[in-house]
Request: fold
Amino acid sequence: MSKLDVGVIVSLGRDPVQGIKTVAELGLRSCQIVSWNPQEWTAAAGKQLVEACAASGVRVSTFWSGYPGPAVWNFIDGPATIGLVPPQTRQMRVEVLKQAADFAAAHRLPSITTHLGFIPEDPHDPNFAPTVEAVRDIAAHCKTLGVGFWFETGQETPVTLLRLIERVGLDNVGINLDTANLILYGKANPVDALDVFGRFVRDTHIKDGCYPTDGEHLGKERPLGEGRVDFAAVIAKLKALGYTGPLTIEREIGGEKQLVDIRKAVALLEPLR
Reply:
């Protein structure tokens, strides 16, 4: 079996050319491009990105697309602010994510990825069906462009995400498995979650962390190897499922320490990939 590529995350708004160079300097060939600001999704930025990737031999696995409006990363205000679930921002975000798909298609990026939000676990919840319709609307637009639409794990249980995918019913949807988010939100162990939705995993955030210790705040993210994720078991199960995508490292800090931790993560993943 060929080795899985290891990648990292590059910001579209923070000099993507230098970001792609850093990916290559780390000895990696894959990255996700992230941007929460539609004003950054310009033809000029896309051209810079494509040229930098071609020059460095780096492949973009997905365009991680955020959206305007509030997003509070906790258990109290998160359900009313994150993703496509809150009705007051839903339609605006649908249109923004369609713009992200247009940007991806124009620059031959294979997919867009985002957080859908706290998808209701109860399928009879009044927000569940409209969220499914919003996701289907975006996914159908992506499909006309030849673009995939991936959903990052975290705010929902694995079976809830599986139910949404089944209800959307399109073949260009999939999952960005964030190994830590399932733990940080207290929703699942990533090894076990793969038994539920593993066949839909298309990309990853290889991240570590600990479970929540109170009812208001997420668990704490940690450097790889210092949290609760069993990376050997996760990657072995991904391989057994036939996964061939990248192992995209995410470290949610900035500065020199981020690069130090990424280098350690690359070394940790080398015998597993």
In short: The chain has nine helices and ten strands.
